[in-house]
Amino acid sequence: MTRTTLLACATALAGTGAHAQTEVSMWYHGAGNEVESRIINQIVDDFNASQSDWAVTIESFPQSSYNASVVAAALAGNLPCILDVDGPIMPNWAWSGYMQPLDIDESLIEDFLPGTKGIWDGELYSIGLWDAAVALYARESTLEALGLRRPTLEEPWTGEEFMAALDAAKASGDFEYPLDLGMNDQGEWYPYAFLPFLWSHGGSLVDRESYTSAEGALNGEAGIAFGQWWQSLFTEGYAPGTSQDPASQQRGFIEGDFAFQWNGNWRAVATMEEVDDVIFLPAPDFGAGNYIGGGSWQFGVSATCETPEGANAFIEHALQDEYLAAFSDGIGLIPSTPSAAEMTENYGEGGALAVFFDLSNEQARLRPVTPGYVVQSEIFTKAMADIANGADVVDTLDAAVDEIEADIANNQGYGHE
């Protein structure tokens, strides 16, 4: 092609208004998950083909190293435009200056589940295409054999009924343990899965009005009652402790070693394939309400993004029901809207997992919405493991409170007034 021809082509393109798409970088936590990667890459391809202004480029990381990679990039000034962020982590990243508020049409998320909306300091910083929920796995045949009432969202088991169910399972001699809690997974599972039991006893990890103190919230009468109950699960043989074999957690309920299992909806499909009468029950109420954890992975925009218009446009594009349904069918999580749920295999009305949508909508409570949560969650996890292993309840909770208070003081209250 001659120079004259090249100039003619360039002139023709300019005349038609054609231009190259501006690159918008994105990081994602799902490397290694083929199904998840296929769906997110399809969303990226669809967005890039749908308009001529922006071209999203995606880089995926293993979930285990993702958060550390983001923090390191933030310190080095190398963040991408679009960030994937775990819901309870978002306030820390927003407070630390890693993220900026979203600039999207919020009418698009009016019907989204509460746990999918990442709000910090009164502003929306992130939004999720799915949520997750925990339920008490059981068999209908077990309830019948033990003569137990089937609890509902409207009438959950009380704390007394729950313990009576465990006692009945224990007395039957049919199970290795009445209950599996997944104690081998000493990461974010502990606060996500077990804080709801503390809340149901009337306690809290920190004071949720001020977020500036844990004194009396974690180690008050309610917190101590929770801690004593928690320890009894292990000292009295209701559940395996922290030395539980991971294989036992994966297969134990399916193989009949446990009467009940406290587990997430992400394990539901695999369980249904092998347990034909599995049912998913709501959390028990120990006197102050029944709760499960809310908030999962969400999309946000970094504070240093030079093309926030493109980043926000991509996030708006990703909010379509067809994508929410695709993620739900692909990786088993809860679609963010009722309309997307109706498009899925399992979460529509009458679907095998529709109960999880209701649990997320009715029972879900966010973990403490504070930048300090990233430290507080680790302190809670250690305290729960120590108590399960026989540590003094009051001393352990007091020590945890001291650590939380010191961290809040060291960070000037994390921005809470």
From TrEMBL:
Cell compartments where the protein resides: Periplasm
KW Signal (keyword) present: yes
One cellular component term from this protein's GO annotations in UniProt: periplasmic space
Presence of the UniProt keyword Protease in the record: no
SUPFAM superfamilies membership: Periplasmic binding protein-like II
Keywords of the record: Cell membrane, Lipoprotein, Membrane, Palmitate, Signal
Any Pfam family the entry gives: SBP_bac_8
Signal peptide residues on this chain, from the entry's feature table: 1-20
Family: Belongs to the bacterial solute-binding protein 1 family.
Protein name, entry field: Extracellular solute-binding protein
Organism: Histidinibacterium lentulum
